[in-house]
Design goal:
By secondary structure, this protein is α+β, with helices and mostly antiparallel strands. The chain has eight helices and five strands, in the order βββαββααααααα. It is globular, with a radius of gyration of 18 Å.
């Protein structure tokens, strides 16, 4: 098993990145969108926790910047009909924290927003995995949903903003004013989103 890869980030794209080790081996690794956004610039040192998936048509390596997210990825593969690409899509769309919470709380609406996961697949995912995430402890990783900001994020989503953009804006608002109530956080987050322009 390849548990981690350390080296220099030589190439990165949303489809796959390449890390070249000191021994000169370049590993092509697929990562969730959140991990991709937090990668260093090309040419910088990079270390990722990895999961190797072996299938008949080849071997694929998937990377994460926390061991917790890698464990979530592995457990997602335990659901019938749920392959690595769909697991990556789920983590890219919702992030590890919201993915776990959605499964624990049977939030079919959130799960169904992910491309490739319809209502029936979301129901199966909850049915098969709801009890398998009770012991998962999420790392305090960059990009994790801020504590106390869930209501503000939901409010922004109802206004038409995508989950990643809403969570980033709420995080910035809470960093600037940790004691703010939900309404104040939403107002501050909206200012940030409007300054960037559009709904993503």
């Amino acid at each position: 098993m390849i548990a981690s890869v350390s080296g220099v980030l030589t190439d990165k794209s949303p489809d796959a990145i390449i890390i070249r080790t000191e021994g000169g081996v370049g590993y092509e690794i697929t990562v969730p969108l959140g991990v991709f956004e937090r990668l260093p610039t090309t040419g910088a040192p990079c270390t990722l926790h990895t999961a190797l998936v072996v299938k008949e048509d080849g071997w694929s390596l998937f990377g994460f910047d926390t061991a917790a997210e890698r464990e979530i990825f592995r457990r997602l593969l335990g659901a019938s009909g749920f392959g690595p690409r769909l697991a990556i899509a789920l983590l890219s769309s919702l992030g590890p924290d919201r993915t776990v919470r959605s499964i624990r709380e049977k939030d079919l609406a959130a799960l169904s927003t992910v491309s490739g996961i319809g209502r029936k697949k979301a129901e199966r995912l909850v049915l098969e995995l709801q009890d398998r995430f009770g012991d998962v402890v999420l790392d305090s990783a960059p990009g994790a949903r801020p504590r106390g900001g869930a209501e503000a994020v939901r409010a922004l989503e109802h206004l038409g903003y995508g989950a990643p953009a809403a969570e980033d804006a709420v995080r910035l608002a809470l960093e600037a004013n940790p004691g703010a109530d939900t309404a104040a956080v939403v107002r501050a987050a909206l200012k940030h989103l409007m300054s960037k322009g559009g709904r993503t």
